[in-house]
């Protein structure tokens, strides 16, 4: 395992494919996911011939440091986990891909370090999330433990066995702190208009963030939007072949 230091935290990352001669592509998946999901869901096999594929587990996820206080999960700090990995690896500039929570982290990174971006891939996101402690499904499920978290994912998408096993082992206390923090984040709606790097945006036709993602393309010069017919927010995660082809078309 490889780790970069970000203050007191160690941030887990891995080079999952490709070699140093290829352009770097940095991957940040969604809430509660692992960098190994990029492998198990078929992304890396489709990307490694075109990119040096680097995946990051931001704080609270996988093997990275996992604070239990909401104040440790503001978007600037989470974005700094990604730049800490880039610094550690000597990557000055990269295409950075985020999905769902990962897209919000990448937007925060873009607002602070636009010079580090050769391009952006952003999928399935909202600019702000409403989180009510008393009836939030994510918080309620995390309170029941890892097996409940794994079962919830199994209801919304097909999870490969290794991914399902990892979901059952998540740090529920850290993820609960992150979820509560996410509900307090300021809206990221002003960031797209400031972006200068080329950007690929995508969503499923039935994704809850579809309209936000689709509308964002009008604010970002040099961007394009693609959509997968009939799929939900989670089903899009399983459809690696389609979006990997679009990413290679845009950035390889």
What does it look like?
It is a single chain. By secondary structure, the protein is an alpha/beta fold. It has one domain (2-245): 3-Layer(aba) Sandwich (Rossmann fold). The chain has eleven helices and eight strands. It has helices at residues 37-40, 43-47, 75-89, 101-112, 137-144, 146-156, 161-167, 172-182, 210-216, 233-238, 240-251; strands at 2-6, 9-17, 24-28, 52-56, 94-99, 117-123, 199-206, 223-232. An eight-stranded mixed β-sheet has the order 1-2-4-3-5-6-7-8, sandwiched between helices. Helix 9 (210-216) links the parallel strand 7 and strand 8. Helix 3 crosses helix 4 (101-112) and helix 6 (146-156) crosses helix 7. The longest helix has 15 residues, at 75-89. The protein is globular, with a radius of gyration of 17 Å. Residues 23-125 form the AB hydrolase-1 domain. This is AB hydrolase-1 domain-containing protein. One of its GO terms (molecular function) is monoacylglycerol lipase activity.
């Amino acid at each position: 395992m490889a780790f970069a230091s970000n203050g007191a935290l160690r941030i887990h990352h891995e080079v999952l494919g490709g070699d140093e001669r290829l352009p770097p592509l940095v991957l940040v998946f969604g809430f509660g996911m692992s960098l190994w999901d990029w492998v198990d869901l078929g992304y890396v096999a489709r990307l490694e011939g075109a990119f040096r594929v680097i995946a990051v587990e931001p704080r609270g996820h996988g093997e990275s440091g996992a604070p239990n206080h909401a104040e440790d999960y503001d978007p600037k700090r989470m974005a700094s986990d990604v730049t800490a990995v880039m610094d550690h690896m000597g990557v000055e500039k990269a295409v950075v891909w985020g999905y769902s929570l990962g897209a919000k982290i990448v937007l925060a990174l873009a607002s602070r370090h636009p010079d580090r971006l050769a391009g952006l891939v952003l999928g399935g996101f909202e600019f702000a999330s409403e989180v009510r402690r008393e009836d939030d499904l994510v918080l309620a499920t995390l309170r029941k433990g890892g097996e409940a978290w794994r079962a919830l994912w199994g209801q919304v998408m097909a999870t490969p066995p290794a991914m399902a096993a990892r979901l059952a082992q998540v740090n529920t206390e850290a993820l609960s702190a992150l979820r509560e923090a996410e509900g307090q984040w300021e809206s990221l709606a002003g960031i797209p208009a400031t972006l200068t790097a080329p950007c690929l945006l995508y969503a499923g036709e039935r994704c809850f963030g579809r309209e936000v993602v689709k509308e964002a393309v009008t604010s970002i010069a040099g961007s394009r939007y693609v959509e997968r017919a009939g799929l939900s927010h989670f089903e899009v995660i399983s459809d690696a072949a389609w979006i990997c082809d679009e990413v290679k078309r845009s950035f390889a």
